[in-house]
Structure formats: structure tokens, C-alpha cells
Design goal:
This protein has about 240 residues and is an alpha+beta fold. The protein has one domain (about 1-235): Jelly Rolls (Sandwich), CATH 2.60.120.620. It has five helices and 17 strands. The protein has helices spanning about 1-10, 15-25, 35-40, 75-100, 110-120, and strands at about 25-30, 50-55, 60-65, 65-70, 120-125, 125-130, 135-140, 150-155, 165, 170-175, 180-185, 190-195, 200-205, 205-215, 220-225, 225-230, 235. The strands form four sheets. The chain has a seven-stranded antiparallel sheet with strand order 1-12-8-16-6-4-2. Strands 3, 7, 10, 11, 13 and 14 form a six-stranded antiparallel sheet that branches. Strands 5-17 form a two-stranded antiparallel ribbon. The longest helix has 24 residues, at about 75-100. It starts with a helix and ends with a strand.
Length: about 240
């Protein structure tokens, strides 16, 4: 796991902050080594790892399946979640300041978890998603309760145009009183996407205002597509 700790230590927090401020997302290429991507896929059917399985079409979320991990998390996921959070917390707090929101996020991940627990948010939100041919995910936000950290991670476990075709990652940005803007990304195996969970600040004539953002997956035309979603806050029990 030292290779992942090294990757985290090399993340440029200032650069991440600048891109998040500008776009609401940033893509880190080749963050997760291929061997770990394959391990997550190989362990997909290990039911001992998960607390809940969701069939998307049952809830009209799309077509596919995802599984919520249970605590304790696999060590690799725990290292990423705990290690990346302190890089993002100052960026999140700056967003709260720019938007005049009276929220403050602690610098340590364990303290965020304690805040969640104090608000009855104790269920693990880290999840792994699987899509086959025809699979897709509708536009959504991963909030889970009143306490939510405004950024999250997605790690891409398959290679596009080899393991699957289609299945692009879609972001939409809804400016007030304007049409939505669509952003389409095609990350490669091992890439990590940092994105806003709910909104990002945008500067206007009278200061900063909230721009709502959602994310989803376009239709998979063929093959299988797996992703790992790391949400920092926990869900209501």
C-alpha cells in the first residue's frame, strides 16, 4: 500500500483547488495501479465485503448494480479515503467561505466521521458499481443526509474501448436561470476523478453564487464497466 500513500503525497493540493474552483472536477491520471483495479473487480462477488446491494432499475436510477461496502473497509479504500480528505477539506472550507455558508469541515477525516455519527449518519457510503451492455446511471447527487462533504472520488477500474464501449462519465452544470451545460469525460483504467457532490461556487457580478452539478453514466454499448465511488460522509442509519 506504500505505492498508494506515495501517490497521495504527490497530489498538488493547490492545483486541485484551482481546477475544482474553475470546473467543479479534476481528473488525476493513473492514480490507481492496474493490479488494484483488477483486485476490486475480482472481489466484486465477495458478499462478505458489502452491506447492501442496489439494483438500479428497481428504483429507476438506471440499469446496472451497485454494492455498498461495510465497515471495516478494505485497507486500500481506507487509505485513499483518509489520505485524500485532508487535501480537499481546505478547498471545501474555502467554498463555504465564498458562498457565505456557515459550515466548516474538520481537517482530519476521523473528525468528519464523528460529526456524521453525531447526526446518526453511520452507514458506509463507499460503493462499487457494475454496468453491462445497455447499462446507464441517471443524473444524481450523492448526499445521504444533512451532513455531506461537497467533494467525492470516482476511481475507474476498466479500460474504455477495450473492456467496454460507451459508458462515458457525464457531468451537468445548472446555472441559475440558464440552460444546463453537459461535460462528457472518458477516464481510463486507474484514473481518479475528484468532483463536486452537490454544487460549486461561481463568481458573478454581485459575488459568488452556487452552481448545481449532477453526474451520471451514459449507456454502455458493450462489455462490462466497473467503478469505485468514495464518498467521504456516511449515510443516515
Amino acid at each position: 500500500m506504500n505505492d498508494i500513500k506515495q501517490k497521495i503525497s504527490e497530489i498538488n493540493g493547490q492545483k486541485i483547488g484551482e481546477e475544482m474552483d474553475e470546473k467543479g472536477y479534476v481528473l488525476l491520471s493513473q492514480f490507481l495501479p492496474v493490479k488494484y483495479c483488477k483486485e476490486f473487480i475480482d472481489e466484486y462477488d465477495n458478499e462478505d465485503l458489502y452491506r447492501k446491494i442496489i439494483t438500479m432499475e428497481k428504483y429507476r436510477f438506471g440499469l446496472g448494480e451497485y454494492k455498498y461496502f461495510k465497515y471495516p473497509l478494505p485497507n486500500l479504500i481506507h487509505i485513499i479515503r483518509k489520505g485524500v480528505y485532508p487535501i480537499l477539506a481546505p478547498i471545501a472550507n474555502n467554498w463555504m467561505r465564498l458562498l457565505n455558508l456557515k459550515r466548516h469541515f474538520p481537517n482530519e477525516f476521523e473528525k468528519l466521521q464523528q460529526v456524521c455519527q453525531d447526526n446518526n449518519q453511520v452507514e458506509c457510503t463507499v460503493l462499487i458499481l457494475k454496468y453491462g451492455k445497455g447499462g446507464f446511471n441517471t443524473l444524481h447527487q450523492d448526499l445521504y443526509g444533512n451532513i455531506f462533504f461537497p467533494m467525492q472520488l470516482v476511481l475507474f477500474l476498466n479500460e474504455p474501448d477495450e473492456d467496454y464501449f460507451g459508458g462515458e462519465f457525464v457531468l451537468t452544470q445548472q446555472n441559475p436561470r440558464a440552460q444546463s451545460k453537459a461535460i462528457v469525460l472518458k477516464p481510463r483504467m486507474g484514473d481518479m476523478l475528484v468532483l463536486t457532490t452537490n454544487f460549486r461556487p461561481m463568481k458573478g457580478n454581485k459575488g459568488y453564487y452556487q452552481v448545481q452539478m449532477r453526474h451520471g453514466i451514459s449507456e454502455v454499448h458493450d462489455g462490462e464497466r466497473h467503478t469505485l465511488g468514495i464518498i467521504f460522509h456516511d449515510a443516515v442509519h
